[in-house]
Every structure is written in structure tokens, then in C-alpha cells.
Design brief:
The chain has two domains: 18-174 and 251-321, Alpha/Beta hydrolase fold, catalytic domain (Rossmann fold, 3-Layer(aba) Sandwich); 175-248, no CATH class. By secondary structure, it is α/β, with parallel strands linked by helices. α9 links the parallel β7 (261-264) and β8. 35% of the residues lie in helices and 15% in strands. α7 (224-235) crosses α8. It contains ten helices and eight strands. It has an eight-stranded mixed sheet with strand order 1-2-4-3-5-6-7-8. It has helices spanning 18-28, 77-88, 118-131, 143-153, 175-182, 188-208, 224-235, 241-248, 279-283, 310-321; strands at 37-42, 48-54, 62-67, 92-97, 135-141, 163-169, 261-264, 288-291.
Length: 323
Amino acid sequence: MPILSSTQYKTPLLQFNGHLQSIYPSIFRKVPFAYARRERLELPDGDFVDLDWSVAKKSANKLVIITHGLEGDSTRHYVTGMAKMFQANGYDALGWNCRSCSGEMNRLVRFYHHGDANDLRRVIQHAIDQYGYQEIILVGFSMGGSLTFRAIAEFPEEVPTQVKSAIGFSVPCSLKGSVDALSTKENNIYLKRFLRKLGEKIKLKAKLFPGQIDATNYDQIKTFIEFDNKYTAPLHGYENALDFYEKASVGPLLHQINIPSLIVQAVNDPFLLSNCMPIETAEQHPHLFLEMPKRGGHCGFMVKGQMHTWAENRAIEFARQFN
């Protein structure tokens, strides 16, 4: 499909660069929204994920499933904002939490990661089998975008017919590209925050699983490559960090997508390098749309004077276009 234009999107005046457009909403944006209930979904391996539901007055069997980013959860502003937007347009909304992200540590020694969309597939199937949804839209942010597109691209012939379209914002299509971006000096603030939050879980896991996870000298880890070499790769069956980045990146799978899909990448996103922009794939793909607004930051896309973001408007517009 042709690369889509985003000339109509303008950022708030004081959010004049990608860093402010990323940081400001993360700290200050508050969405007046509350989920109605939480459901625990037991997984085949003995673990669980927690699902947060909000039901529209008249959903007509329509559901949006929203997947958060690395070390996020269903209460992040970009998740609740998207849930609120879809609910206002007649969809039920499900914000699910990856393993260890719902406020309660998961049961197994493993965590979640960019390359494993099996839990999301089970969430989708659960929504169909248990509640009978006939129209499902998938929306993901950052790592959640990776999981969203992996869920439909890895085994495209197995995607339920109820899944009508997929939408991702700020997606690290190349994990190595994103890691390289976050390794620059100007992005050290984001790197430190991720490593601090991941470290809290590693230290707790080390107490729960002595001999299987070692948190000794964790505070000496300064890069994602060091973290992924020591923890992500061995815990999840990869040889090392580089093997993880190569095999867990969703970019190489995008050509297999067979339902309408939209990827939105802000050009000034501090988390992404140019190799995270799947331009050639989108240009030659009948179902994949790529939109690259000049501004928006990472999971930002705020609009002056409005409670909702441009991303929320864009997602519901795309969902309507293909459903």
C-alpha cells in the first residue's frame, strides 16, 4: 500500500520535540476512565495473565484488545485512552496485562518478551470462546505493537476470522534498532528507567527462584544488551542478546500479514531508528499501511486542547474503514 500522509496532525505548542512528546503524556496525562472488572486467565503452562474489561452499553459483539508496552500495564494512559475511545464508539474494551505486569508477580521463572505472542493469542481466543465476540480489533503500543503484529503474522492461517484489523503505534520493528536508539547518550533517561523497573522484578524473582535467577551485581548492568544477555535470552530460550533481537523482531514477519493493518511511527520517536520503519514492506504489501507523521514522539501523539490523542482518533478511523 502507498505510505500514508499525516500532514493533518499537529502537536501542542510546548511539546516541540520527540522527547517532550514522549515524556509529557507519560507523566502528566490523566484519562478519566475505569475498568469495570478484572478477570484472571489461567495459561496452559501454569502461569496467568490478568484481563481488565470495560463494556459499552451497546457493543454488538465488538471488542478492542489493547496491548501495553515494555514494563507498562493496562492502566497506562495510552491504553486507557484507547479503551475509552473505542468504548465511546460502541466497542467493549479489554486491556490485558503481560505476565508480571498486573501488580502481582507471575508464577513461573520466565517473564514476557517481544518475541512471544502466544499469551495474546490465548487472550483473543478466550474472548471469542467465552464471550462470543464476532468483531475484534487489535491495538498495540511499542512492545505491544510487536506482539500485536506477531500474533497475526507468525501463523497467519491460524488467525481467527473474528480478528478484523490490527493497529500499532511506535513499534520497534527492529529490536536491535530500538536498542541502539536507546543506547545513545541523549536517551539515557529512558534506558535507566527501564533497567530500574526490570531490576525490581529480577531481584524479586531471585528470591522466589534461588539458583535459577541471580540478581548479584544487577546494579552494574548499564545497557539493554547486558540485561538481555544475562536474563532475557537464557530465560526464554535464546542464545544471547543478538540472537534474541534477530528472532524476536517482528519486522521480518510483516510480509505475512493477511488482514488490514496499520503501523504508525513518528519520525521523531527517540526509541526508533530508520530500520524500525518498514517502508519497503508496506510499499509492496496489499494489507499493510504505514503512516509516519513527523511528530508524535513515542506513544505520545497528544493534541492541543483535547482529552483524546491523535492516535486514538486514527485508530478508530482505521477500524471503521475496514469493518
